[in-house]
Amino acid sequence: MSTGSSAPKGVFGFACLATLLLPWTSVAADLPLKAQPAEHVKVCAAYGPGFYYIPGTDTCLRVGGWARMDTYLNVAAIFSQGSAFSGPGYSPFAFPFRDKHDADYFTQGRGVAEIDARTQTDYGTLRSYFRGGMEWDSQTGPAAGPGAALYVERAFIQFGGLTFGYTQSFFDTGIGYSIATLFAGSNTWNTTAAYTAEFGNGLSASLALEDAANRTTGVQATGVRITGVSSPSDFPFVTGGTGAPLLYANYQGGQQAPDVVANLRAEGAWGLVQLAGALHEVMAVTPSYLGAAIPGIVDTGQWGYALGAYAEIRLPFIAAGDSLYLQANYSDGALNYAGLAAGNQNRLQAIGYIQLNGAGLMNGAYYPLADAVMGSSGSYEMVGAWAVQAQFRHFWTPGLRSAVFGGYVSVDVPDNIVGAESFAMWQAGVNTFWSPVRNLDIGVEAVYTAVDGRQPLGIVNAVAANGSAIPTLVGGSADALSGAVRLQRNF
Prior knowledge:
Blueprint: H1 9-30, E1 52-53, E2 59-73, E3 97-98, E4 105-121, E5 124-137, E6 147-159, E7 162-168, E8 189-200, E9 203-210, E10 219-221, E11 223-225, E12 259-268, E13 271-285, E14 299-314, E15 323-332, E16 350-357, E17 360-368, E18 372-374, E19 380-382, E20 384-397, E21 400-412, E22 423-434, E23 440-453, E24 458-463, E25 469-476, E26 478-490
Parallel strand pairs: 3-16, 10-18
Antiparallel strand pairs: 1-2, 2-4, 2-26, 4-5, 5-6, 6-7, 7-8, 8-9, 9-12, 11-24, 12-13, 13-14, 14-15, 15-20, 16-17, 17-25, 18-19, 20-21, 21-22, 22-23, 23-26, 24-25
């Protein structure tokens, strides 16, 4: 006979079982739940190799890029203002002067990422594209030391035949087999709003509005060659004078309209052919010495134009990958379309170089660049130019290729403009690239550049904004041999 309280046997048994299982229940609560099936990245074959679907979306993405190391010998761009570098040490002489402060070589490291995203819609493919990154330069500018900078090649959106953003100008093809950007011919990146109509069988036509910023060269004042003073050694900048500037006064007006660019293009397995045209507005302000009460308030404008013809002919019967590229350009009041930029994003105002020694000036050349030249009456006339370029690339083996290239550009300043000089510039070069493994290029290049003018290097009295005379060197001839070494890995 029990003297204590008792519970039903079933309840007692359940309590004992719960006590025994409690630790295991706690452990089970800590175990992870069964994982959901992972969504694997799927290949997107619609747009070619390298594209994959972004998980959970219908957008196809390709990611790539490249890393590069360049070494330029004799600074390949010594002829162009904006690309030439005066030494970072003490020197009163900037472009176009060359002296012992200027480095004989220049190095650059650049890393670029490429992102291409595409989505198929009821209205066609929606595409966004970016290619850019960072670079390090051993000299960041005239009289400046090393440093890093952002670098952008492309940033655009395409949809239904429309293109908006920063990309290759629709005037150009963007084809080039050289490391250096050739002076002859057009090859410019720009912001654009364009429409391309596809007619089938590789035939298309484009109409674009492009920012004139990378195409505007300037409007230069004219001068009178100083009578009785023709030796460059008498130039006051060198002999301890006032330090007069070398550029003609630039009367470029404010940008009011974009360039209008159109092309007609045919492309196939055989290569491509493109015809292009452009309209470029030239704006000039009236200087105070010609009656402007406030400089920069009064301006006038007129339209220049440019024409271009391009062809790439593929030559597989010589060797796989062989091709010949030809380009011809003409411009009137739109000088950049004929070349002389020495870079995809450059717009220059002068070209040439003058070598210095301890006794004064040696031989050299210096020429201002302009879309138009203003006369003494305040009216201005367009500057004309034409250019031809040829490049040939040959594959000795699948991993070894060479290219030979050259170009000629002629700048014609109106003959009735006193002191403004016409000149011609030509280049010839060769390079060889070895690819020991896929996507790795190791190359060397040599380029000869010459500029020839009708007049010897001498002094011109250019006109300042207030009408006073500015002694300015202009004319002459010069040449240079430059080179480059490139190592690049694409991925």
